[in-house]
Amino acid sequence: MLLFSSIVACKAGADWKKSLGLGKEKVSYLHFYFHDIASCTKNATALIVAMANTTITSSTFFGMLSVVDDPLTQGPAITSKVIGRMQGIYASASQIEFSLFMGLNFLLTTGEFNGSTLTMIGRNPTMENVREMSIVGGSGAFRLARGFLLAKTYSANTVTRSFVVECDVTIIHY
């Protein structure tokens, strides 16, 4: 316990940012689209990995768990420049409305933030026009990040189960 207290006291001092190699706090804004293809085809980017016995009869798919690896693009077209990947899980977590619990990492693969990640967790009530979820961390340029992501469905095809979602992200980081 004494060792832990000493570490906390040291890091809580004025030089904790310096000791972690952090610079000045800044705000960044990102705008991108993700393409979620939840079909049973070779092009699928989201796969159902588990579901409850009652999921199939639920109007909200309550109890369904999916794993996702979606491309992030600059524009809404799937042919737009790929700037990263959205990887993680989402689960249908409401018995009343179609709402997802999402735990995701956004890996950026080009530009100023190449190799950096953002971690997002939150509730996504997909039928709402704009949904807000929390940025709770990151790596690389986004170490100790915090902020929020606003998601808006750009297009949805329920027959092919293909969705394009527009994202605006505000990040406070060092």
TrEMBL record:
Gene3D superfamilies: Allene oxide cyclase-like. One of its GO terms (cellular component) is apoplast. The keyword Transcription regulation does not apply. One of its GO terms (biological process) is phenylpropanoid biosynthetic process. It is found in: Secreted, Extracellular space, Apoplast. Coiled coil: none annotated. The keyword Secreted applies. Keywords: Apoplast, Secreted. It comes from the Eukaryota. Homodimer. Belongs to the plant dirigent protein family. PANTHER family: NUCLEOPORIN-RELATED. Dirigent proteins impart stereoselectivity on the phenoxy radical-coupling reaction, yielding optically active lignans from two molecules of coniferyl alcohol in the biosynthesis of lignans, flavonolignans, and alkaloids and thus plays a central role in plant secondary metabolism. This is Dirigent protein. It comes from Amborella trichopoda.
